Amino acid sequence: MTISEAEIAQVRSATDIVALITEYVALKKAGRRWQGLCPFHAEKSPSFSVNAEEGRYYCFGCRVSGDQITFIREMQHLDFVEAVRVLADRAGIELHEDDSSGPARKERQEFLAAMDRAVEWYHERLLNSPDARPARDYLRSRGVSGEVARQFHLGWAPDDWDALSTSLKFSEKVLEGTGLGFVNKRGRRQDSLRARLIFPIFDSANKAIAVGGRILPGAPENPDGYREAKYKNSPETPIYSKRRTLYGLNWAKDDIIKSGEIIVCEGYTDVIACFQAGLPRAVATCGTALGEEHFRTMRNFAKRIVLAYDADSAGQSAAASVYQWERQHEVDVFVARLPKGSDPAELAQRDPSALVDAVATAVPFLQFRLDRVLDAANLSTAEGRARNAEAALRVLAEHPSDLVRDQYLLKVADALRLDLATLRPRVSELVRNPQAREPVAERPVQPRVSEPLPRPGLEALRLSLHFPHDVKDRFIAEYFVNDVQRGIFQGLRTGQSVSEVVDHLRRQGEDAAADVLSELAVDELDREYTVDDVTAVVAQLLRAAVTQQMRDIERELRSSEITPDVANATVRDVKERLELLDTPQGASAEADLRAWLLSRSGSSE
Ligand SMILES: [Zn+2]
User: Fold this and answer.
1) pLDDT at 128 over 90
2) How far, in Å, from the CA of 364 to the mean position of ligand 1?
3) pLDDT: is 375 or 284 the higher one?
4) Mean pLDDT over residues 76-98, rounded?
5) Which of 275, 54, 38 is nearest to 152 (CA)?
């Protein structure tokens, strides 16, 4: 548990405080000091000052102060000993502690070293191995040269079960701890990624912490007939936290600081495309939606955040959260207006200067949302203008600042040729009473997204989204006990694209469902699904749906809609079949329960 004073002093003197803090905050030289925006409180002008010689920092705004160790403690939420260990690792100093938590640190070190070797191995394969030719051809066709592949350390995971595991001879612990592989049902080591282009993910200090893998277009289906997810990322591990990580930040940091701007994309290839187009300040989230922790990181580097998403995804960003983050972290969120159907990677290849323009002329998030409504406006009839005004005012009412709302209200009045005096009270009403934002009053109140949704339902939706053909006949609407989830499932059933379903749900005022679906659509699958997994999900859904019906039967019994013997017989029957679900007779039990649920809902399939 204890580290000697001498070693602590050694760690301090080996850690250049300016270099350390620059991993988190942009610092500029000001006389003998270094200055930057304080990472501990939100501010627009720099009051955070670092003294390199003394190894100390101080903030004139919030008055925090400290040295290398306190800084890393605060930034990474560590205790003293952990912070010293992090800095010792960073400086390559070996501590002589007599403790019990040493192993966890050793393990982290071991995982980082393994990830580093794996990234090099994948990279080497891409550059030199004959079997990586299709990957190299694909990259070339997308305008990615060998030089760029080297810059981003791209790699190739061969089409083999265990090429990485056997070549690098990783232990089971390392394979599973890094997410690079696992031990399969036959007790053999297996790689997590095969036949995929590898995008290594680094932390802001340039250490490889995870990998993302993309299948090549036209890749064959895997043997059990499942279409694989296009992207597959490392799972969360002791060295990798998705919600904290921004892909590309390690390369983009310098230009972000210089330009005061950070470009946020949806995919690895978008980031690379931005760099190639002359915008070396792009990052991407790693298989999660942009969230609180990302903003916490970004605000330390730049105040102008430009979302470079395709138009539909940008429109679906949760407005309330974006405004909250803008306020809380004192940043401004802009949206680059990309041509409909384009993402940065596609646009950069076709017309790089158009991408640069789109970023330079990005509009504030609220304006982007308003424009979407106004661009679709039908100005030829009074009814059309009124309808669009209502939609625009609803968008406007989401913004928390009345000063901002008022400025945009003028634009709306102008664009729709309506009187400001009639619009203003309606906005105030919508702001005061968010319920009135629901377009139709009779609709039952939708559950809020923040309520946890049943997990099997989410799992089923994820499967329906990513493997629509494989699971087509396994799920029915009656399996979903949650209204939001049932609504999404029915939407997906129509065979429309996700964006169309989202738009439809929004038009119906089902924003909660639209939000959940938008999030699911960017959510990546962490693993492959087998037939057994689907069966397990069906069983869980059935249990929940049957339980709900049991409650209804109780109610029917109380109100004498059915007699006790009918109720008892039904309950006995159903329970018997539930018990059979995990046995060899599972399939017929599933079919019986499904038929029973359908008969209860009165629908015929
Ligand atoms: Zn401060």
Assistant:
1) yes
2) 27
3) 284
4) 82
5) 275
As a whole number, mean pLDDT of residues 336-342 equals 88
CA 250 to centroid of ligand 1, rounded, Å: 24
> Which pLDDT band, with edges at 50, 70 and 90, does 360 fall under?
very high
How much distance in Å is there from the Cα of 311 to the middle of ligand 1? Answer: 36
Give Cα 397 distance to the centre of its chain: 26
Residue 305: its H or E element:
strand 304-307
Centre of ligand 1 to C-alpha 22, Å, is 16
H-helix or E-strand containing 357?
helix 352-360
Distance CA 446, CA 458 (A): 17
Decide if pLDDT at 526 tops 90. no
Whole-number Å distance, alpha carbon 466 to ligand 1 midpoint, is: 45
Beginning with the edge strand found earlier in the chain, give each strand of the sheet holding 208-215 in spatial order: 155-157, 196-202, 208-215, 231-233
How many other C-beta atoms are found inside a 10 Å radius of the C-beta of residue 381?
9
Residue 443: the pLDDT is 32
CA 55 to chain centre: 37
**Which band of pLDDT confidence, cut at 50, 70 and 90, is reported for residue 435?**
low
Is the confidence at residue 604, as pLDDT, over 50? Answer: no
How far apart, in Å, are the Cα atoms of 287 and each of 4, 346, 506? 42, 19, 24
In angstroms, what is the span from residue 46 Cα to ligand 1's centroid? 9
* 292 CA distance to ligand 1 middle (Å): 19
The Cα–Cα gap between 153 and 517 comes to 33
Q: Find the 59 Cα to ligand 1 centroid distance in Å.
A: 5
Cβ distance 212 to 287 under 8 Å? yes
Cα 23 to ligand 1 centre (Å): 17
DSSP letters, 462-492, are HHHHH-HHHHTTT--GGG--SHHHHHHHHHH
C-alpha of residue 36 to centroid of ligand 1, in Å: 10
Structure-block tokens of residue 377: 């406006």
CB atoms within 10 A of CB 274: 28
329 C-alpha vs ligand 1 centroid, how far in Å? Answer: 12
Do residues 412 and 370 make contact, with C-beta atoms less than 8 angstroms apart?
Answer: yes
E strand or H helix at 597, and its extent?
helix 586-601
Average pLDDT over residues 224-246: 81
| Cα separation values, 378 from 98, 315, 391, 417, 455, Å | 74, 20, 12, 12, 41
Other C-beta atoms within 10 Å of 595: how many?
11
Per-residue confidence (pLDDT) for residue 451, from 0 to 100: 44
Determine how β-strand 155-157 pairs with β-strand 65-66. unpaired
- Cβ neighbours of residue 356 closer than 8 Å, sequence gap 6 or more: 277, 278, 279
Neighbours of 357 (CB within 10 A): 14
DSSP one-letter code for 224: T
Q: Each residue of 365-402: pLDDT tens digit?
A: 999 989 888 887 777 788 888 888 888 998 999 898 88
Report pTM: 0.63
Element (H, E) at 191: strand 189-191
Whole-angstrom distance, CA of residue 216 vs CA of residue 210: 20
**DSSP percent split of the chain into helix, strand, coil, nearest 5:** 55, 10, 35
Per-residue tokens: 426: 């309606």
Contact 281, 256 (CB under 8 A): yes
**Cβ 453 vs Cβ 486: under 8 Å:** no
